[in-house]
Structure formats: C-alpha cells, structure tokens
Amino acid sequence: QVQLVESGGGLVQPGGSLRLSCAASGRIFSINYMGWYRQAPGKQRELVATITVGGNTNYADSVKGRFTIARDSAKNTVYLQMNSLKPEDTAVYYCKLNYAIGSAAWGQGTPVTVSS
Question: Of 104, 93, 106, whose CA–CA distance to 45 is shortest?
C-alpha cells in the first residue's frame, strides 16, 4: 500500500560525503514525520534524523553538525545529506514514514560503508 524506496548508499572514504534519497508512494494520509534510522552489525536500530510535516528537524547527537535531513514535498521524497563521514557511521540506513495513528512504513534499507 505505502512503499518507500531508498537509494544512494555505498562505499565512501572517511571524511567523504553521501546523499541518501527516499521516495514515498502509495496512499499516504496524515503524515506525522519522515526520518532516517540506521542499524550497525550487532547493534540496535537507532534514530538518525527526523523531519516533521511542518519542517521541524531533529538529529542524533552523533550526527549533529554533519548530517542534514531535507524534504521535497512535491516529489514525496526525503533526503539525508551526510558529510564528514566516519567509520562509525557504517550501517544499513532505513527510511521511515510515520503517519496516521501509530502507523509506520519502512524502506528496505541501503547500506553505507565508511572505510579507507
């Protein structure tokens, strides 16, 4: 019904940059926020950044000042610009759409590897 398709992941050197994209499609009602989460091997999934329908943003302390979340409402797309990447940023990154009352849709995940 509601689908999220992510792209932009890959291998990058420390200090480099990547931009992740997430395009939402389907019958979407009453969006609360969209966001990015990540999960490293052996670790719990954690919140990276969110942006509300009103444009308010929040970031995890570990990425604040390096990552920027943005949206294109006309294209139903959310982006994550990642700069000054560190090895500890290595994870599978997931896009999340939170809508209605307690409803959520997840993307399939796109892997990001930061290594020299």
Answer: 93
